[in-house]
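$ fold --in a.seq
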Amino acid sequence: MATVNASYTQDPAVIVHEPNLPVWTTCAALGPFDLATSTTVVFNECAVVAPTRTLNPVAPEYLATYCIMAIEVILLFCYYLAKTTRERLSQSKPFLDVGPAKTPFDSDVELQDMSPLPNRDTNGLRFTGYKRDPLGTSASVTVAVTSFLWMILLTVLVLDYYAVFSRFNFREESDLLFNDHELLSTVFILSWHFVVIWFLGLKFIQDKSDSYFSRRVPITEATMVQVEKRMADPVTIANMGVIAQWVRNFEAKARAYLKNEHSVTVVPIQMTSVGRRYIEFECVRYVFDERSGSFQPYSFAVGPTLGDLHQQSVGLTTAEAHRRTELVGPNTIAFPADTFYTAIGKEFSGIFYVYQMMTLWIWMYYGYYYMGLVLTFVIIASGVSKVRVYLTAQRRVLSMANFTGIVNVLRDDAWKTLSTSDVVPGDVIEVVAGEHVLPVDAVLVDGGAVCDESSLTGEALPVVKVAVKNDASVLYQRGDGGANKANNLHAGCFVLEAQPAGKGRPVLAVVTATGAVTSKGRLVKDILFPTRVSFVFQEHLKVVFAVLMVWGVIMLVLSILLLGTTGADAWFYGMFTISQILSPLLPAVLVIGQSVASERLSKKGIMCVDLDRITLSGKVKVYCFDKTGKCTQLIVHESLKKSAGTLTKEGLNFLAVQPVLSSGGQKYGPVLTDYTSFPTSIRTAMLTCHSVTMVGGHPVGNFVDVEMFRVTEAKIGRPTEMEPQNTTVYPTTNNDSEIHILKRFEFVHSNAYMTVLVKDPSDGRMYVYLKGSFEKIRDICDRQSLPSDAESVARKHASEGCYVLAFARRELPATTSVQEATAFTRADLERAGTVQFIGLCMFRNELKPDTADALHELRYGGCRVVMITGDNIDTGVFVARQCGMIESNEYGTVLVLLGDADAAGRVSWKNTEDGSTIDQSGMLAILASSRGGNYRPVELAVTGKAFNILLAEGTMRGLLFDTRVFARMSPDDKVMCVRLHMERAITAMCGDGGNDAGALKAAHSGIALSEAESSVVAHFSSRERSIFSCVELLREARCALDVSFASYKYLIMYGEVLAFMGLIQYYFTVNMSQAMWILIDGSTVPLSWALTQAKPAARLARTRPTARLLGPETLISVIGMIFINVLFGIGAVVMLFGERTQNGNWFHCNEFDGQYYDIRRWWELADNFEGATTGMLIVFQIVNAAAIFNIGRVYRAGFWRNWVFVVCYSIIFALLSFVTLADPNTLGCLFHTNCGTSDALSRLNSSTGTSYSTSFLGIPSTYYAFIGHNVMPMQFRIRLWLLCIGNLFALVVFEWGVVLNFGRAFARRRWPQARFSFRQ
């Protein structure tokens, strides 16, 4: 006989009609029994002894699970044996390294015309040949079928749990296919583990699945190629800490151990029209060379000399063009765009989606399918939304990348109209003005053009392009910074005007590159295959996931121990705990803040191409700025605004000239501002030494040249048929005669000046004029022509904020003919010692109106601002002073020391106040005194030459954060300077996407103040050319980072509250109702979203938000709140059990004993006082946690400014308060709190004198409690509600007072990071 202790007093008839009471359920499971006939039931005896059930692991119910796994494992093992045996017998090579081809494989293609692409496209690639065969295809089909069968099996088990198949069941003793729930649950658990192992295995081999189910064969027999590319180390963020470093080291060792150091891509081998085999990988075509036995990426070199280019201007033959098409492919960027279905497959194959799927299977099975379906919808909708955004961005890039039109091509000595996709390197095309972009990179060989390159290089004004000279002694340089920049046309630019060399002659250009190797193609590749960045936030997140999983397993064991059972139901309770600790929503909410910030930035004209860079930007400590156009006002003449509407106009304001007077010795004359008073030589230089051309009757070109030429009020004539290479300038003042420009050598960065050869018809003499930086012109001029104070005067003008250029002139001998002069090389014309210095030309650098305010905001926000410019060092220092980069403080006026290279190749330092020269040791002594507070503040400014010398000496890193201005920096110098800063701090770069594109891409956070297509290499681009865009970016980024942490801590608290309070509930074997669980998870989703709607603070704080998920501040916050919540949870239980001896002893004998309940029906464990009390406290704690983490005035606007959260929180808080305090009602009964059956409420009214309603909508007919209700007295409800309010107040005091104020300061003192101090 089994004895049942029913410690309550009730009418036996009531017990009989309550089929879920312990007396009934226990005895009914054991066999027939009779209740005692007495009116008071205290003990009942069951007539039979419960049989002991033994699960048979080889029972038929388990066979489906065993069979699916065993059969598939056997099949795959057999396939593995067959595959390895066949490959061993075939003796195929493991891989083929890509290297330069030793010989051409087309006899009529000369070796000098054909060469592999630069090493950047081939380094680290390994090719392995594979071929599909029926055996591998069959094995892959079995994998797909098995995956499908697993899903079918889990679906059947879930549906059987709800007795969906009852009418199809052959069993008479049960409604379930699997006989009883214990057996069903055991089969589900076994199947669940198999499915987890199965899908994790598939994820592990996902990248190699295509090749694994194919047979490895020699490359010559392959139909597909597995391309393995060594994964580049991500860009490392400075000061990431011990944990992040440990994670990186662990990952590196794990990849090495698992031999997973390469990314794997399987691409099909395709065939050209003549049967040549090739593959396409990362937009580049690799052609198989049968002689070298490898795939090679090929390009066709044009030139190599300027004379060769002119010889090649006769065009290609059709046969030659066809052969070149075979090698380099059509003029398109070969990137296989994802379809919606392939993108969905990539998105939902992530490792966390596997976790989410398996978690939801448990929820669906164990009676929580309501919320399981909701979360399934949320996760799928989130994934589909990400796919949609990804596909939109991909299509945008590809639409920018490829353009299909028509072009005139010189083939077989005849002009043919072809599609742009049919153009190959070496083709000769006709350059015409039009509304379509140029489809190739090319070099002009006849005629000229005016091009709009703003979409590529960020050049604000149209640029003039001229034909290369027919000079066999000069090598052609294709690079953007090479000597032929003025001759090169870039794919993606617009041709505004074609300028034929003669009447009826076309403008000719030789194609130098097509497809992915063009200027535009490289931009597209940078977008499609970006550089990975390692951020401390992401590194800590990996550790957090691992820790949470371990903690979840520990809580699983504790749950089983507290429940006092080891059955299948205990496993489900434990898995529920794991899914709560590691919420399936955690990855989603961490990026919601980034998405919201990105949307807000886009409304402000700031576009983001990499969401991860938003949170990274929240930690920016150093901001680097180019000067020109970023800090200074670019003044535009009104006439320029009438030019082509696609142009962005900008320029400097012409100020004055200062000529050199020869009378009485070489000395400077007065500063002149009236053009009519300028000396003839200066006027001629201004009229001719420029790159200006006329478009629509208006001058266009470099903004400095345009502004200078505008002052002359002259006109430029077109070249004539008799003199096709000449340009005539027609002055309109001073009765100056027309001037012929015979030859022009354009400005290049390496020279920093330009040269023109002109003929003055008034005297028939020819002159050479030079214009460029003072330093370069000074070095090339005759020393006797320089005034003694030449350098000091130039520096003085620069120090006053002028952009200073120098003019020089050389008069050719009268006996020199035009033919002889035009035949001279640039070196001949510029021969040192023959050029005479004639004066200076000054332009005014005006600050943008908002520059000083923006920089002040950045400095106030804790950022160090630095100038990296190509301009003169004195100009840079002047602008830095004007805009507030260099400013005095309470320690005194800042002393600026200028560092430049002397003639001996050493760095000398100059005191800007007295002009004295200081050696290196003297500078270091002054700097040391300043750092120690014994001297006034000192700032350094260095030139590019000094920068490189100091870098080579190893001293630049030590001086880096004392250097404010980096002047005369080349594009490569800018990249190196940014990278040096990145070694010590999170660094941002602000530029225009032109010659600073490399620095923008290299920086942790790059923002281009341009809409040019080249700006896409930057992580952000702004339509507004204002430095306040940088301020807005930091405000939003800091807010996004802080919000991500708030969301992270909220979901951690969600899990820990449920875990710890769950242990208390498990101790009493109680739970919450389904509706209460739905309320918890249903409120978590909107509250998580509402947290991300917080707006940024009105201004930048002096500190940056933490990025360390495992940092002291984060750990103190989370652990402290957990401790407080546990204390209040214990307090609630103590308060409830205290009611057994006070307040009428209403809780006496009403304690819940769940040992006789079926815990599988967990929702029935809520109909008691313990479940209602702890359940309400749990919901309050979770909802209040969201409110706590919405607090933040440092990086986010105040609590009440996030009105979306305030509305959501208020509604949920009001709902919980009503449910807690109200008498029995419909809403309370929905959540099984303060509710009961009609009979139970009637008995309660009779016994206590209350007047609760016994008839309302939703009143239950059955309540799973001994007394039929769990209505708490009003005094206890009020105390419980006040306890929840007190819990909230304690959390506010702890988070606001301890963590965000005292705790933050204490943690920074107790656990200081590797921070360094610097002047902002």
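$ fold --in b.seq
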Amino acid sequence: MSSINKLAIRGIRSFSPESEETIEFYSPLTMIVGANGCGKTTLIESLKFVCTGSLPPNAKSGQSLVNDPGMTDTAEVKASIKLLFQNRSGKTCVATRSLQVTKKRTKLEFKAVDGVLKLKKDSGETVSTSMKCSDMDRVIPENLGVSPAILENVIFVHQEDSNWPMQEGKILKMKFDDIFESTRYTKALEAFTKCKKETQSKAKTLKAELMELGAHLMAATQSKKELEDAQRAKEQCDEELESIGQRLAQNEDRLQKVNELLTAAQASMQRLKKLEWQVAEADRRVQEKTSSLESVLPDTDEQLQHVLNNFEMAMAAKRKDLQSLHQQMDAVTMETDKIRAELDRLNLRKGQAVALQEQLQAQRDQQWRIIGDLAKRFPFLAQVNLAGGWNAAVVKDVISRLQSEYQRFQQESGRDVGRLRDVVTAMEKTAGEKRALMQSLEVELKLKTEETRALQQDCNTKRVELSRVAASRGNIQRCQLEFDGAQQAHQEFMTDYNRKIDDIRRQIKETSDRMRNLQDELNQDAQLLQELSHHRKELAAAEANIQQADADVRLAQTELASLMATNRDVLLDVLAVDTPIQRTDELEGALKALDTRTVALQSQRDHAREEISRLRSELAAKDAVLSQHTRKLQDLRVRIEGLSNVEQERDRLIQRLNELRRNRVLIGSELEPVPYAVTFEELILRAKETEDEAREMLTITKASKAFLKRLNKERKRNPSACPCCGQQMNATVVSTYERNITQLLKFGDEPDDQPEVTLEEYNDTLEHASALFLELQTMQKRLMPAMEIRTEIAHLERLVQEISTDKRTKQTELLDWESVRLVDSDLQVQTMGRVHRAFQDICLRWRNAEQRRVDYVDRKKRQTDSLFSGAEMGGRSLEDIEALQRTRQETKDTLQVKKDRLATEETTLSKRFYTVKQQVTEAEKALTDAKLEGNRYEELETTLQALQTKMAEIESRRHALQRDRDQADRDVREFHVQVTAKQQELRQREEDHQRQGQALQREQETLHQSQQTIEQLSQRVQQDATMNVAEIEASIARGQQEIAQREEDKQRTFLPRIQALSAEVASQEHIKRNVLGNIELRAIIVEARQLRDEWQQLQQATTSSSNGSGSATQQQYQQAEREQAVVLREKATLTSERDTLKGRVDVYRVNVQQVERRLQESSYRNIDERYRRKNIEFETTNMAVTDLDNYLNALDRALQSFHTMKIRSINKIIRELWQQIYQGQDIDTIEIESGADIGDGETAAATAAASAAGSSASSRSYNYRVVMKKGDLPLDMRGRCSAGQKVLAAIVIRLALAETFCNNCGILALDEPTTNLDDPNKAGLAQALARLIASRAGQVNFQLVCITHDEDFVRMMRNELALTNDANLPAYYFRVYREEKGHTGKFFSHIDRIPWEDM
């Protein structure tokens, strides 16, 4: 039995971290007294933390549990809790928990250090163990002998959590589930249920596997028989094959000799025919070659070969000369192209130089106009000389004057605005002083007003109090009379109170002793009755199980008869009988026949599935090939479609080319339209021609425009002189000159009213022509593979057609297998499988029912034999024991009624005692209050007069302040108007200055930017030395002359020589061909003469050996053919017989291999042993399912019984305590109602029925609520009871739970139990606790720890314990208080031990 002895605290909450405070715990009572806030609850928190590791409510993460570092002026505070206790084995233990709080920059950091547990062994040795906090949380409750839930919710309950039985249902359920440890038992039930389900699932799986193994066993036996038959037939066929092989060998020897003769004769005949054909062919070739030659030369072969060799050497020299001329002409062409490119670059450079000079002049003109506008707008620029045109010095002078004027304007505007801003600042300062004066007056006025209001309230209060005191001065005499009467009534009551209360308590003790003796006798015979009742229940259960087994056998027979009637057609073919089955051996025979038939049907279905699988594989392969060909065909078609789009694109490009050749730029070049039927090579040449023409037109146009600009510039300088020679011209000559110049610059037949073609149009035409030429070159490359793609498309289409035809044939065959043969096989297998499973299930239930009947009959016999064999009966019958128990229970109930009546009388006397005492106390207090009120009347009159005088003075001062405030307010408003006007003037002046300064700055920036642009352009003109237009024009003229000279040299020098050499080479090639033809003709004539000689010799040899009826070779050949025909017929006969036998042997070999392979498969290997093991595993698993079901039901019934018994015991104790403690008449008793939720939430009333019906025990849980009863009506106590009733109910429930669950640990701590209780209920609680202490006086480890600040309750407890004879009074009680440490202003808690007599 465990108990606590001593607690030492250091640094916890308000306890000092520098010293350790200790408290001892006595048996049966430890009383702790102290004022509110002194640290009493810290003792409960420390006990709870050291035992369970649970933090108090609202302790954050533990920081507030330890003394704050600010109280000790340190960065870290270390705390410790030590508990000396006796564990449930009676050994002394010391548990130590260490804590620390460290002060960080912005927070406090809490840390729990590893704990230490010291254990003193029987030998006196002390063992110290350091362990983690979680291990301490587990080990200490085990040593105390209670669960952590009991320690937290019953024994050491914090004051804030003391009313947990009155909380909402969810919290109440969680608390009671922890106390009853329902979660642990529920997990056990869930584990049993889960194991049962898994085992059942395993049994079903094993059953299916066993059936499958049975089918495989039958199939393996049949396969072995087929293997033996096939091997015997194969051996016979091998013997016959050996005999035929010998005969075929003899036939082969004869055939070989005949074939040799045939081969020799046939070779001679074929050689003769071949030579005859070769002679005719040689003659034909001679005639063809002779007709193809121009002339047959009479020269010899050596002469012709010599002519041919000399010809090759001459032709090689001429080709080399022709190639050299072509290379020289290409070099001249390349040089000409380089000169043309240089001319293009010079024309472009000339245009850029002219444009840059014109841009520079335009910028200068614009800048000069800006300076003229500025001179008109600003007077300080009027003296600037603008008569001589643009001048850089004048521009710089203007920019300098603008900068000087801007700086001067900024200085003057700054001084002007500064003077005005100083005036505004001074006025704002004066306005601020006036506003400050007004605000100070308002503040003082407000203070006086508040002071007046406060004085008025004090006066009113004093007047009311003065009236009340005047009225109470006459109550002193009445209070004195009431006090005297209350004292007299108290003395009269006390004369009989002590005698009556002693007599009642003596009778209660005697009644309790008799009830205890009766309870011992009841407990002795209750165990015997329980065992007898258990035997009776088991006999009844065995009889019911026997009847259930008989009913199961009959049900199996009925289901079997129904099954056979339903499937008569199927079973009649398999079983060959139509009579009902009455015995299990008949049923097993029928089951074996069904197994055989099922295996045969499954083999047929497997064969059909193999055929379907083969056909599907072939179809899949064909689909893959067809898909591959189809994708490739689609890709080729897409490519050919892309190439067809190229044809359309080609027509579009021809149209674009024709439009380009007809536009304004090229219309004068007389380019003919390109027809749509033109070849692609010619189309590319036409595009190149268009590009060259556009480039040439662009070059000429650039040069012409540059020349025209130069002429116009010269004419502007001297309009009446000729720009070329400088000669003076009259008006007629000028008109003629302009008309001729305009006509010369026109190209083609442009009408006069058309606008001039721009350089941009020439550039665009050249770019379009170049882009078109590139597109045509790209398109030519894309048209090459078109024919190859079309050939491949035709080949793929033919392959796709063949594969599709073969695929349709295979699909027809597959459809036949799937829709007819496999469906029939599946239907037969399903029907037979369903019947087989039904037979198997009925057979299993039939056998199980018969086996269960035998087991239950044997169990019933054993129970009957052992029912009355025990020696505990003592010669009494079961009825005698039950009658004696009823008599004892009735006597105990009568004594309980008497005890309750005596307790009620004792409670009534106690209530009367406290009522009388309360009346005396109240009368005395009323008399004292009346006397004090009488003495205060004169003091209140003097205070009231002083208040009225002061209020008049303050009111006068308040009126003066109000007048000053109003005058200051008017001054502030008037001055504010003046300040606003000045501020507006300042803002207007600043805006004007800013606008003028921005205008000057903008003009200055404009001129500056213009000057920068002019300087940049001038630098570019000066830096580029190639900008001389005259030099560029001279270079262009020299280039054009050089191009004309080179073209003339090419036409005059190279082209005639190239044409002459080409004609000479062509005529020499004709002579070469004739010489080669004569050489070939002579070779053919020689070959024909040799073949004819050989043919004549072979023909003569064949004719000389014949006898006049044909050649000898032909006669030998005919005889050999006849003999060959005879041998071949004999060979064909033997071969046919051999092939037939080989086919049979192959069939037998394949069958043997298939059977051997099938027997080697995993499903048939070691099938006999596997079937035996699987059958054993299946039977043992079924037995395990039955055992698990029995264990689950037994555990569920035990848990229900335990829960019901505990709830009944708790409610009984609650009822007794409530009737002793509660002094009201509105509630007879309170109870804890527990309802069981099963699955969807059935109540407790349905628990037994649900269990009998087979509901899942693992899904059961309990809901709890506290109800109060008046009569037989239960009401939910939560939300309907007062605060005092709630506190009292929570204490009673905790007392009952401690009485029920704390068998190994008799500790109970009550923290402020009298909260919200009136005096009668306090007295009742004190009496109940005193009785509890007296009843547990014999229990060594019973310890009640009571913590309170109520001195009256302590005196009640002392009186009640003094009146109880069985209670051992403690020697000391403890007082907790807070005391200042030195004069630091820091208070820490202390504990003092005081003798019990000094209370």
